[in-house]
Amino acid sequence: MALRKLSYAFLVISIILVFFNTNSLAESHLFSRKLSKKSLGLKRQKLSHLHFYFHDILSGKNPTAVPVARSSMTNTSATFFGQVMMMDDPLTIGPELTSKPVGKAQGIYASASQSDISFLMVLNFAFSEGKHNGSNLSVLGRNSIFSGVREMPIVGGSGLFRFARGYAKAKTHQINFNTGDAVVEYNVYVFHY
User: Fold this and answer.
1) CA-to-CA distance for 117 and 187, rounded, in angstroms?
2) Greatest CA separation for the chain
3) What is the rounded CA–CA span in Å between residue 166 and residue 150?
């Protein structure tokens, strides 16, 4: 009888141990878990305003934006529909290309409208100046280039701009219709930690 109670107790303890081991093993392989901001070193959220000029140069010996794809419609479309451009455009403090550089706009833009000249913009503002050196902001949005002011979302960032969100306001400062070269003023408002 005592042996039977001991065997029963051993069996119950074994089942409990297997349950807890299986449960803790399953929890250690969870897909996601909650974290505190503090565990990632995140402090108070800030709102920053950045102001710079974007130089999109299509002409000359060293253009900063080049076509990488075209549809058969591009040549007959008034909106250049289907054309895709790769860019590595300088960002500067002032509207002159010779003003102080603050980074690059690197990515692609594609003519995505058959009715007006509107680009799908997929790019990073890669900063190289001051405390922002090595930090990036990512833009993904629609740029209807002949609108007075265009607004595009900031969808993320890295470096000082981790967990960034906000918007970029673009305003054409100058455009050369013969060459396609353009200078665009940007005001960027971004929340980040």
Assistant:
1) 22
2) 102
3) 14
Per-residue pLDDT tens digits for 143-161: 998 899 999 999 999 999 9
Residue 174 vs residues 57, 141, 163: alpha-carbon distances, Å:
12, 21, 33
Beta-strand ranges (E) seen in the chain are 46-56, 65-69, 84-92, 101-111, 118-127, 136-144, 150-158, 165-175, 182-192
CA 87 to chain centre: 15
CA angle 80, 82, 88 (to 5 degrees): 85
Q: pTM of the prediction?
A: 0.78
The terminus-to-terminus CA distance of the chain in angstroms comes to 67
Contact 119, 110 (CB under 8 A): yes
In the DSSP assignment, the letter for residue 170 is E
The predicted pLDDT at position 179 comes to 95
Separation in Å, CA 93 to CA 33, 34, 54, 152, 186? 42, 40, 9, 20, 10
Residue 67 pairs in a beta bridge with: 85
Site of tokens 């505190």? 36
Q: Count of CB atoms within 10 A of residue 48's CB?
A: 15
Say if residues 186 and 98 touch (Cβ distance below 8 Å): no
> What is the three-class DSSP state of 19?
helix
